[in-house]
Amino acid sequence: MTHAVRTEGLFKRYGPQVAVAGVNLVVPAGSFAGLVGPNGAGKTTTLSMVTGLLRPDGGQAEIDGLSVWRDPVQVKARIGVLPEGLRLFERLSGRELLLYCGRLRGIPKADVEGRAHELLHVMDLDGAADKLVVDYSTGMRKKIGLAAALLHNPSVLFLDEPFEGVDPVSANTLAEVLRRFTESGSTVVFSSHVMDLVERLCDWVSVMSGGHIVAQGPLEEVRGGSSLNEAFLRLVGGRRDDGGAGLSWLGAQTRER
Questions:
Q1: Which domain holds residue 226?
Q2: I need a labelling partner for 144 at 20 to 30 A (CA). Which of 66, 168, 175, 247 fits?
Q3: Could you report the per-residue pLDDT of 70-127, keeping only the tens digit for each?
Q4: Are 207 and 234 in contact (CB under 8 A)?
Q5: Which residues, in sequence order, are bridge partners of residue 20?
Q6: How far apart are CA 175 and CA 163, in angstroms?
Q7: Which CATH number is 18's domain given?
Q8: Of the candidates 34, 11, 51, which has an alpha carbon nearest to the alpha carbon of residue 156?
């Protein structure tokens, strides 16, 4: 198996709090991979370290066999990133943003213009191409952010909660673009805590809990004959229903004033 992403003992601490506790993440090349876990599991911290945005306190990370920290220029040329809380150059139009990003990447002007035109069309942003990004909706911002991440044709694309706050139409557009990307042999890694979405899109899943990878492998293997949501709750130790003990007052109509 050829690995697009591999980490070994990846570790990050913030003061006394351990955010990532020795993660060994593996993502096969050409896969549509989901990194899932409850809030606070360490997903965003892990992706930040794997993409070179955050330096780990220990461990190693590789992209296409290249060390993220020993070969940073080569690695950054191979990856596209759509981070959580994406910040964009909001006083540029969507078209200007793509042209600017392309020139920063050193792509010839004619190629950038052609790619930007195609991406705006595929993302259904033709009508908003000359509109300022500051006026874009959440879904439009995610789509222009994904277009910028794809502009240089990366081999591995990292997305942190890409469907968060996105309307169904925009989400469908994003999903179709990502499917086409992986069908070409490239790799997508995206984090989410929405199991239904991961189950629908992914063929490889890594489950995080408490800063550790607790399971990873092909989707069918990880879910083990049940739904991914059931497998997830089993793996991360989801709380059992206690019948609302301690909330006996909830819904009661108190008439005393």
A1: 3-80+149-236
A2: 66
A3: 999 999 999 999 887 778 888 999 999 999 999 999 999 999 999 999 999 989 999 9
A4: no
A5: 12
A6: 9
A7: 3.40.50.300
A8: 51
